[in-house]
Design a protein that fits this description.
The chain has about 475 residues and is mainly β. The chain has three domains: about 70 residues, no CATH class; about 240 residues; about 140 residues, Jelly Rolls. It has three helices and 42 strands. The strands form six sheets. The protein has a 15-stranded parallel sheet that branches. A nine-stranded parallel sheet has the order 8-11-14-17-19-21-23-26-29. Strands 31, 32, 34, 37, 40 and 42 form a six-stranded antiparallel sheet that branches. Strand 35 and strand 36 form a beta hairpin. The longest helix is centred in the N-terminal third of the chain and has 18 residues. The termini are far apart.
Amino acid sequence: MKINSLLIFLGILVSNLLCAQVGIGTTTPNASAILDMTSTTQGVLTPRMTTAQRIAISNPANGLFVYDTTENAFYFYKSSVWIKLDSNIRNNYKLIKSAADLSAELTAGGGTKYLLSSNTLYEINGTITLAQPIDLNNAYLTGRDTNEDILVKSGGTMFTGTTGGNIKNLTLTVPGGTLFSLTGATTQNLIFRDCIVSGCNSIGSISGFGVVFLSVVQFLGNTTGITYNNITNLLLSNVAWFGNNTGTFETYTGTFTLIEKASGLCDVNGTAVGIDVSSNPTVTNGVMLGVSFAGSSTTYIKKYTSGSFTGFNFNKNWSVNCPGIPKESDDVATGYYNMNGNATNTAFTAVNTPTKILGTTTQSNLFRVTAANNRLTYTGSKPRNFEIICTGTVDHTTGGNRVFAYYIYKNGVQQPSISAERRFVNNDIGNFTLIGSVFMNVNDYIEVWVENQTNDSSTLLTKLSVSLR
């Protein structure tokens, strides 16, 4: 009996060897496998050993496979090196392929919103139709293909709450609804980049955050834009509002430490408005550079109603240099006044004693400069050098020969380097010119003064023009 069993075993072994296949748990091993193990209740255990034991293996063969119990990880040997097999799945990661994959977040949000887990990366794959708003809760929401990874919410609001987070590489659309209704604290930051926003009734509002950063965002076919309110640092880079949007693109209200808007496009047509600052927001430092304004709208900027100058849009805390709207910065501050046909005699208290030229002047072309009678005051935000050009006409028809000297005064102090002298004979009318440069701090002012070097008789200027630039 024992001999028969041995013969049968040897026969099976020889048969398997001849077939070059072994089946465990199956009598029909797969033709492509030298070893086919089949089970629904058991697995395979590889050799288990400590790190010290693994390293101590003598002359390990390429492909040798063991489980390291010290590190709780599989290793295989390749080209004289032990390679650890790690999972490629990120920690704090969740793949979203339908709204059902957000069921735990919906439960966390009490059934009224998707409350994301903070510091977790949510990868959107495909088109996801949302039933409720999203509370970012300082999570990371991203796609891999902006045109294919899409969040949709029909009506209502897509993003709500008091926290920030990161939104990237997505198309966002809220037909009949609002994209943002966010009111955060100064400790909260929102980053929104590399996205397309289309078909929204309103982009909505973002308020109260410490940092809001938009970069490479396209707005297409939206009914109206966004309001930014009370944000410490608002950073906008390469944001494009195309001509198929309507309404007002960006409205700034409240208080900002910094608004920096660089490059991008603002294409507004008809009654649409590019930027609305008519509520006179308090901005410590506003910078707008390289943004192209285009379209048929007559109101690219709904201007400051206080602190702006005729023909300009912003107050002195802004530096603006964008195609399509006036340049505004301290380096282009300018002022001009003239006196023509409204001359007044200027009397002297004594010979060789300068006095300010009297007369009513009319100002024009003012930017960050204010004007009163024979006075231009610089009202920009930073000190700078100015060029002064002054011309005048003197009517000297009585009193005999005279010698007059003319000066530019700054803050009531004579500037000797900007002066001129003119000699008159009786019944003479003549001109004088002052040209020079002066350094002016904020709120410094200049005036034109005259000195009679012959006696204390008065003088009459019939024309006076002063330009500061």
